[in-house]
Write a structure and sequence with these properties.
54% of the residues lie in helices and 10% in strands. It has 276 residues and is mostly helical. α1 (22-35) packs across α2, α1 (22-35) crosses α5 and α6 (113-123) packs antiparallel against α8.
């Protein structure tokens, strides 16, 4: 908590901001809708995402009914103002309303917000949706890790704020997102920390370099561990060498003793490259 008082400005080079990732915005849209159903931007983002049988025509009819009644869209979806819909579409809309109401109740009663979010992600079959839309296994894993990080962030917030609620978590994230909005040039002027992958660092050098996540499953990646003795492991070793040789004066190698996985700590194993 003491460290949180001193924010370290940083920029991400050669990568998408955490808050700009589709998966992060999708999960946060659900959480925002659960907390504030009147947030129509968030509601519309998760209305048929992942697909649940609510087409563009159904969405348009519901939005038109809301405009005509001068009411928030949620009031129309969950009350007698909902326009007549085809049976399948009407059932799909009702299931969505029931889903949101169910988790509104759970978030109000249960303190373990991370566990509730895990249940939500599972119930909407979000991982299956990632697999369906992205055939590349590496991309699937990267996108799924973004979902896990949202849950880890929520678990971390709970640890620091035992009495904190979902609204407080979302408010804290909003502040973080605003920090992301600063231009890279402005951040560099503030002597910001530059974050990048080792692939992005090729050809660059820095006085101080920190290589984090030096653990089995990260470097080398868990995918290459399944192909022990192959060229893939050797490529990971070369990549580690690239990271080490980026440092001009100081090099720091680090790994956590435990890593958060779905909001729970898991023991880590030091990377073999540390001993090499």
């Amino acid at each position: 908590q003491e460290l949180r008082k001193h924010r370290v400005p940083y920029i991400i080079l050669g990568s998408t901001s955490f808050f700009d990732r589709k998966e992060v915005r999708d999960i946060l849209a659900y959480l925002k809708t659960i907390e504030t159903p009147a947030d129509e931007v968030s509601l519309l983002r998760c209305f048929n995402n992942p697909p649940r049988g609510i087409g563009d025509k159904t969405r348009e009819e519901c939005m038109n009914a809301a405009v005509k009644a001068g009411k928030p869209l949620w009031n129309v979806l969950s009350g007698p103002l909902r326009p007549p819909l085809a049976e399948a579409a009407g059932n799909a809309v009702q299931k969505f309303v029931d889903l949101i109401n169910h988790y509104r109740k759970r978030f109000g009663e249960d303190k373990d917000k991370a566990a509730i979010t895990r249940a939500l992600v599972t119930q909407i079959n979000y991982r299956d949706d990632i697999r369906r839309n992205y055939p590349d296994e590496q991309e699937q894993e990267t996108r799924w890790q973004a979902v896990e990080e949202v849950i880890n962030a929520l678990a971390g917030y709970q640890q620091e704020n035992p009495n904190g609620d979902l609204d407080g978590f979302l408010a804290e994230l909003t502040l973080g997102e605003r920090d992301f909005g600063d231009t890279k040039e402005k951040e560099l002027q503030r002597n910001a920390l530059a974050l990048m992958t080792m692939h992005s660092a090729k050809g660059l050098e820095f006085p101080h370099v920190y290589m984090v996540g030096m653990e089995e499953g990260i470097l080398p990646h868990h995918r290459t561990l399944k192909a022990e003795g192959s060229d893939e492991v050797e490529e990971e070793r070369r990549l580690a060498y690239v990271g080490v040789t980026r440092a001009q004066e100081y090099l720091t190698l680090s790994l956590p003793l435990t890593r958060m996985k779905w909001g729970k700590p898991r023991d880590t194993i030091p990377s073999r490259f540390l001993y090499e």
